[in-house]
Amino acid sequence: MSNNKYSFSKKHWGVIFLCYLLFLIATAVTTDSENVILPKLSAQNNWDYSLVLTLATVAGVSTVIGNIILGKLCEKFGGKFSIIFGLLSAAVFAYIYGTSKSLGVFVIGLIGTISCGQSISFFGANSVVANWFPKKKGLAMGLITIGPPTSTIIMVSVLNHIINKNGVNGGIYTICAALILMAVVCAFAVKNTPEEVGCTPDNLPVAEYEKIEEGEATATLSTKELLRKKDFWAILLIVGICNMCLTGLMAQWLVRYTSSGFSETKAAMLMSICAVVGIFGSVVAGYLENKLGTKKGYSLLATIFATAFILNFTNVLPLMYLSVPMFGLCITLFQIYMPAFEITVFGRDNFKKVNSLIFPVACMCGQAAFLVIALCIKLFGEVRSAYMVFALLLILTVMLAMTLKAETEME
Fold this sequence. Notes:
The protein is mostly helical.
């Protein structure tokens, strides 16, 4: 069986579809819903919007604590538990922040929503994928991570329409209902491992799977043993920097373009083009991981990402336009390659422990993008100056990636 083909059973395809929906709903309940709800909730309660944004940033940073706790819960109870717990808890916290009348309650609800929303995809769904697709993780994640750009394209406008028609509470009730419904579906449909339903990982023939298991048995590592491995720290730096660059790109997209003379409408249109390309880019990025291996696939895409930042930095109009689809090719880089590196280097059995340690720190690194951009604006006066910093950091990650030992990857 070729390792480069989507040779999956119906049950494997069912897992991919469910995880795609989980990534979509996780993005919808966190980033995308915040973009719609925060300004409307602020206006409804007569809150200072700049203060609300500041508190939202504080909430985003504070989720590292929730992520550490939720990561440990996933490590102990498995991916299915994390998915269901995340969906139900996100519904509760979304209701709390979306119907809040005080800023204190708002912050508590938002921290819980972001933490639990991320748990749905980055802990729960990723753990299930690690068990079902340890070799074909790139092919699977390339399809699953179509969810976030799909949410950005569709869910933002849908949620905006619902809120404009039924108010903020109407939007919140819709989100909560969708989360609870998804939890019920996952309670019956999600299985932690393919062995539970008589399947094999990657849908390999039983004899081939058993041969691979014998040849690639990896020791279960303790937290102390993981922290002593240089590959662990290299992966942490790679995915942390990658997340910082992606956050810096998407969170400040409109500001970057409007500060260079673009209208908000045109800047938003370019962002939509990037998201649309991201749907196809996700599949390409996943295929490259599977075809070239994790290290080479990441290195190629990170180089394209760095080049796009440099082209955009020039402020030369044709080069700026060229950078937009290049960015689109890379916007799911973090979602695909964080679990890919973790599985490739530490194996299926160590994934939950490694992911529970790396993801919370990678999230903090994402928030560091705002500090980098603020410093660059202070020193050079423009958002685009941060793009050169991001480009250099991405080249550093390529150098780090090539030093990793792929303990379980078949190349």
